[in-house]
Amino acid sequence: MTVSTAALYELLAAVKFDSNGLVPVIAQQHDTGEVLMMAYMNRDAIEETLRLGRVCYWSRSRQAMWRKGETSGQVQNLVDLRLDCDGDTLLALVDQEGVACHTGRRNCFFLAIRGNQLTTISEPLVSEKDLYGK
Questions:
Q1: What is the C-alpha to C-alpha distance for residues 18 and 74, in angstroms, rounded to an integer?
Q2: Among 95, 97, 68, 92, which residue's Cα sits nearest to residue 80?
Q3: According to the annotation, is 44 in a ligand binding site?
């Protein structure tokens, strides 16, 4: 995905970053519509994502750029980046290589209410040890 400098700056000007300079991002598998995860981007992460075509987020816990897959190999390649009507949420349509969740599941949305309890509805496809060597 090639983006001109003018288009990049137009997008950045339209994004309503929060008081910490972040905007929420939903990552969705481009061809199936599966919602994979939610994370945050800052200006630098948006720029890097659009420049390299590989999704980069801002890690609030590490206070650093988080290049999806840099430690696990589970990369998200950008297909399209969209801004919602209010300018306060991004949608990253991605081609996910492997699993998206750090727990080894395909996506991060594996807990659901079933009956009267919170239930795990999908099991890990890859162990955390295999993902991170821990």
A1: 28
A2: 92
A3: no
Please, are residues 87 and 16 in contact by the beta-carbon 8 Å criterion? yes
**SS3 of residue 20 by DSSP:** coil
108 among annotated binding-site residues: yes
43-76 pLDDT, tens digit each? 999 999 999 999 999 999 999 999 998 888 899 9
CB 76 within 8 A of CB 96: yes
| 128: confidence class by pLDDT, cuts 50, 70, 90 | confident
pTM for this one?
0.92
What is the span of the domain harbouring residue 70?
Answer: 5-101
| 86 labeled part of a ligand binding site | yes
Is 128 domain-assigned? no
Query: To the nearest whole number, what is the mean pLDDT of the chain?
Result: 95
Whether 23 maps to a domain, the answer reads: yes
Confirm if 40 and 60 have CB atoms less than 8 A apart: yes
Residue 18 assigned as binding residue: no
In a domain, 32, yes or no: yes
Check the annotation: does 95 bind a ligand: no
